[in-house]
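Example is below:
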Amino acid sequence: MKPVRLPAAATLALPRWALFALGLLYILPGLIGRDPWKNDDAASFGIMWTMAHGTWQDWLWPNIAGMSMPDEGPLAFWLGALGIKLFGWLMGDVLAARVGTVGIFLLGVLSLWYATFNLGRRQDAQPLRLAFGGQPEPDDFGRTLADAAVLIYLGCLGLLLHSHETTSEALQVSLVALLLYRTVRYVEGPSLRNAALSGLAVGLLTLTRGWVTPVCLMLALFACTRFLDQPAIRAARDLGATIAVGGAVAALWLLPAQLLQPYHQLPLNAWLAWNLDQLGMPGMHSLKFFFRVGVWFFWPAWPFAGWAVWAWRRQRRALHIVVPLAFVTMGALLTLFSDQPEQGQLLVLLPPLAIMAAFGLLTMKRGAINAIDWFSVMALTLCAAVIWVFWIAKLTGWPAKAAKNALKLVPGFHPELGWIALLVALAATAGWFALVHWRISRQPAVLWRAVVLSSGGLILIWILLMTLFLPDVNYSKSYASVARQIADKLPAGARCIESNVGPAQRASFAYYAQLPFAGVEGDHCDLLLLQDSIKLRDEREIPARYRDQQWKLLWEGRRPADRDERFRLYRRGG
């Protein structure tokens, strides 16, 4: 027996304007006015910027001002570079590179919505018919479930930061949602066309972050075919079509890059080596990482998703559980079979978990839903209040302890009042209280009521951080100030700089200071920029590979918010 009894009143869809507004409020803060931040965000922007201002070789061999970065795949960087080419003159290179981020986010949300909608209107997902009628229509039921899945997806803590970064991970999670949607369409109507369109998603994923993840998810797709009345020969034919289309899409980069050999390099070799490094033997380290990080990374999706598996356990052929569960299982195995697991691998699980969580909402008791609501209201309102207190403290000095703690993280920073940011933050806070009042006063019976406060509260927290504290975070995580210091000390007519700085630092220095770093093939330069730690005993120690001549120190500095990192600029003696 199905575990769901639901009246039509519980399947009122969220107004389209409200869903669209939530999406914009989610994605736009953190894109406007934000500098490229330390590590992956700055490094990815550096690849895009180098492509946009470089030659055809930079598009085939991703690099950051001469530092080779061929590991993941070029698709996300192509999109960012295209944005710079088209809109850089209008909005600046940094913001132009993020135009694609908005489109990538919309692709993921729409794919998730339609995947859930198509699963929700299937006959095996429909609630039990009520004795006197009044049960929802299949399309209304599917729309309500799709709205709930999107709200859960937007409320996941792990998605928040990654969806705003200009990295391949943001594109990967949206393409996983696209592949999940194409999988749903395939199991609805197995055909060569649907298999080929699934192959398109597989190929795009391969161009984004390698072949390991898309191949494993493709196997999950065809593992679901055992629940269909489909001959094995037909399934094998469709699998071949998926592989052929996916391989053809990946060849759009790999074949020209291998034949033309940009900068006399072989991208295929480096790319395959990086892919093989993603696989390893499972161990306690990856297992601990999965559960320690996953507890908060997948919140609030994982409790609902786990309950969905239990509630629908008697319907073993229910594809609305089988399909997302296959993706979740394969995504979890990818993380466990990794020597160095990272958060980017966990992103693969978010779209299928959100779908499963939406079906878990159907069977939740009213008391459990009310408990989740009250937890969201109390916890998120408290977080917002703390943010406001620290913002007031850093500007006024009261409360003194809060002011000290706020400024301790950004030594040397002088906070200023930004009126536009303040008005946006006040409007977002007022909107939060209006949402809470609507939920508590009206007590709507709609299915998505249990997650609207979680999503709305998380959006509020993000807006407050990206308005009230954006200057502080830029000061703490950007290399703009250090880049300008180096540019001021650079000798006139400098043509080439050798360096050991990391990808994020190299990207920031090349963009903000236009430093002429050595190229991919390497150059013999008279300037040397070193990155090391201030904890080194010998402050003037030069790495062995640069000891061929004497060096004269021109400048030394670091970011005020970084207590370990140090940079030194040298000129070759003689």
Strands lie at 63-64, 67-68, 497-499, 527-533, 551-557, 565-572.
